[in-house]
């Protein structure tokens, strides 16, 4: 896919202006680019990483493809329309941009913050920054392994010291993710020599909020292993969740996009530059069946019929102009919309699922309803009266005994609309819900993404031989417990 304007935003944030000398040392500096210094302070790296992770890792191609896979949206033009019809998905260039962002941009900068701020580093004692970097590294590695399966982790981003890193099995990557989060929690509890403050674009340097985010992510990644060890994964998830987000005020969200050409939300740029998506008929019909007030607030009428009209996934109809099918409303998508990476409502749904696996149906039902309340407030600023009426809807379970995993994942899928489709894709691969993703005129989505051409070209000796049609039939480890390395 073509490069996006968000890359200009990343470079602008990270740009370090230099100056040339005016003495005899000038000749020694001819081959040195002053705008690309070899040594950059943590204070300059922190804004870059707290913007690049939500934007370059969370917010672009990976999310756009996942959105049509989970039928939040339907592809109505170009690459997304092809992907929705299962064409071109084995192309090794599909997610080159995301892979390069992770391994050439994000992880090297995070590793540098950790190195500089830790014991023996040039900015030793910057423990808040080190803790932040470890949380973001864990998050980034999770995205990589959930997208591809085995990925470079223990040997990743070592620069010239290791140009051909080995790939770690997914179970090993998940162990590293949990270790990183444990280390982050310990680092964030230390007395830090400095605080990033406004250099941290996510939590403004709050060690307490980063700590709650780390525990919440631990709960997410423990729960991801529900098919590996249902009981232990549930207990571990609940233990971590108890120390996680206490309310929506703790949400792990980037909220610094601006209405400028290089500072807009990446989904807003996609809509204006490409407009490859329309809201899926599956999303529209699901909310209609639940009499969900979020439908009118989040989905706009299509101009031509004048009513909300979802696009069928796999459609042959091109609607780049968004005339025939509905798009999201400006309340959902604006230049400065937030980019959620994990939210309190997701955590409550995780708790609901974990309690349900352990047979604690009452606790599961309480967490499920709290997840709905938090999601409706976050997504449409719903009133208490509207939420109460929705929860009383006969289309929703009205007792703990009636609650099912499908109920939980359906509401979680609605809460992930519009900006967290990759997490919905992870849930579908793990639980087979929403069930309609398999029960459709088109074939099911792939079970993973193809390894990128850039890595095949540079590191073919280590890239696992998982490509072609195998991406449709070869589950990743946490789906079926079968390792590939």
TrEMBL record:
- Write down the Pfam families for this protein, in alphabetical order: SusD-like_2
Q: What domain of life does the native source organism fall in?
A: Bacteria
* Gene3D superfamilies on file: 1.25.40.390
Q: Does the keyword Plastid apply?
A: no
Q: Which InterPro entries match?
A: SusD-like_2, TPR-like_helical_dom_sf
Signal sequence bounds: 1-21
Q: What are the protein's UniProt keywords? A: Lipoprotein, Signal
Q: What is the name of the protein in this document?
A: SusD/RagB family nutrient-binding outer membrane lipoprotein
Species, as recorded: Pontibacter cellulosilyticus
């Amino acid at each position: 896919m073509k490069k996006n304007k968000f890359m200009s935003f990343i470079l602008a944030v990270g740009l370090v202006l230099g100056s040339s000398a005016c003495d005899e040392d000038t000749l020694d500096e001819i081959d040195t680019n002053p705008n690309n210094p070899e040594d950059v302070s943590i204070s300059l790296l922190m804004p870059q990483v707290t913007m690049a992770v939500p934007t370059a890792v969370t917010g672009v191609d990976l999310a756009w493809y996942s959105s049509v896979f989970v039928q939040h949206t339907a592809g109505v033009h170009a690459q997304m329309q092809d992907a929705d019809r299962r064409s071109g998905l084995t192309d090794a260039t599909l997610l080159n941009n995301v892979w390069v962002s992770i391994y050439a941009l994000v992880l090297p900068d995070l590793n540098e913050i950790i190195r500089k701020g830790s014991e023996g580093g040039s900015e030793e004692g910057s423990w808040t920054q080190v803790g932040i970097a470890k949380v973001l590294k864990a998050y980034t590695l999770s995205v990589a392994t959930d997208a591809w399966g085995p990925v470079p982790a223990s040997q990743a981003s070592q620069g010239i010291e290791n140009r051909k890193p080995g790939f770690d099995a997914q179970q090993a990557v998940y162990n590293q993710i949990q270790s990183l989060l444990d280390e982050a929690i310990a680092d964030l509890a230390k007395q830090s020599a400095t605080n990033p403050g406004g250099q941290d674009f996510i939590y403004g340097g709050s060690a307490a909020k980063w700590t709650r985010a780390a525990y919440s992510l631990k709960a997410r990644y423990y729960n991801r292993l529900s098919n590996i060890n249902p009981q232990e994964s549930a207990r571990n998830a609940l233990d971590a969740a108890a120390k996680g987000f206490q309310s929506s005020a703790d949400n792990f969200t980037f909220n610094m996009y601006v209405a400028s050409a290089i500072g807009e939300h990446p989904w807003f740029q996609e809509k204006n530059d490409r407009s490859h998506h329309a809201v899926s008929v599956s999303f529209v019909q699901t909310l209609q069946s639940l009499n969900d007030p979020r439908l009118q607030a989040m989905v706009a009428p299509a101009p031509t019929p004048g009513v909300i009209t979802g696009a069928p996934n796999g459609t042959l109809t091109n609607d780049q102009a968004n005339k025939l099918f509905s798009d999201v409303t400006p309340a959902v998508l604006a230049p400065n919309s937030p980019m959620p990476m994990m939210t309190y409502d997701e955590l409550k749904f995780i708790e609901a699922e974990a309690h349900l696996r352990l047979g604690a149906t009452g606790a599961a039902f309480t967490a499920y309803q709290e997840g709905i309340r938090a999601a409706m407030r976050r997504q449409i600023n719903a009133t208490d009266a509207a939420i109460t009426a929705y929860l009383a809807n006969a289309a929703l379970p009205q007792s703990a005994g009636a609650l099912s995993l499908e109920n939980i994942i359906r509401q979680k899928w609605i809460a992930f609309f519009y900006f967290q489709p990759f997490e919905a894709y992870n849930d579908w691969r793990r639980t087979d819900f929403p069930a309609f993703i398999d029960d459709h005129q088109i074939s099911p989505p792939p079970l993973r993404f193809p390894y990128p051409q850039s890595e095949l070209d540079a590191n073919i000796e280590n890239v696992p031989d998982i490509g072609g049609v195998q991406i449709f039939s070869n589950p990743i480890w946490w789906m079926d417990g079968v390792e590939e390395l």
